[in-house]
Amino acid sequence: MPRRPRIAPNIEKADLKTLLHYLGLHMAAEAYEDLLAQASKGNWPHKKLLEELASREAAAKKERSVQNRVAQAHFPVVKTIDSFDFSFPKSIPKEQVLAAHSLDFLERHEGFIFLGDPGTGKSHLAIALGYTACMRGVRTRFTQAIDMVNDLQEAAKDRRLTKAMQVYRQPKLLIIDEIGYLPFDQSGSDLFFQVISARYERGATILTTNEPFKNWGRVFSNNTVASAIIDRLAHHNDLIRIVGDSYRVHHRKASRKQ
Q: How far apart are CA 208 and CA 210, in angstroms?
């Protein structure tokens, strides 16, 4: 069925609710009758009523913005810092992790490298920082390392690499997850370097890895590329080392005992 064209209301004869909807102030349109009743009962001044209407509309607009940012970030799941169990790891710089949520590092184009064994919460902490950034209106992008490289390799074959590279260069915050789980060939390593180089001192980057820097020569096909990547990351990214057992293994064992 074809979509019916939207007909503008007769502005001269429209009521307040219709006018608010016409102006795109949908939350204010739905809330104003209740607020008007409260204002009458509480003998509010006109200014307070207008402020309450504007506040409702602003809150709704902010919520829509956050939802859009989260959707555009492509998180596999949403994680928050409040849901992270700091008591489980044997060692973690808790104060440094919490301080990172001020997001001061974004303006300095810096970032973090979360290093730890599988299951120690690296991805959780990285996503939690990304979610905080989305809540503050920051354009954020999450990707697994292998997915990013595969995407860029396909783009290179199709002669659209420049456009594809923008996906990872432009966000104010880029999160690259799971470096080291699968090694990259020469072309993949070169493309990964191009992303890091393009963002160097231009954007903030967060990475997670289970491999210390000394092993990155095996991850990035050769020591030359690995050294170039590490050099740029080490300059502006703080290392956060997490030591402990796997959450997943622990929870699986616990569930079997129940």
A: 7
Which tokens belong to 147? 């997915």
pLDDT tens digits, residue range 195-225? 999 999 999 999 999 999 999 999 998 899 9
* Nearest CA-CA partner of 113 in 17, 241, 9, 23: 241
pLDDT per residue as tens digits for the range 39-90: 889 899 989 988 988 888 888 888 899 999 999 999 999 999 999 999 999 9
If asked whether residues 62 and 162 sit together in one domain, one would say no
pTM of the model: 0.83
Pair (51, 132) in one structural domain: no
Q: Where are the alpha helices (DSSP H) in the chain?
A: 16-22, 26-42, 46-73, 94-100, 104-107, 122-135, 145-157, 161-169, 186-199, 216-219, 223-236, 247-257
DSSP category for residue 139: -
5 occurs within a structural domain: no
Q: Among 106, 100, 69, which residue's Cα sits nearest to residue 204?
A: 106
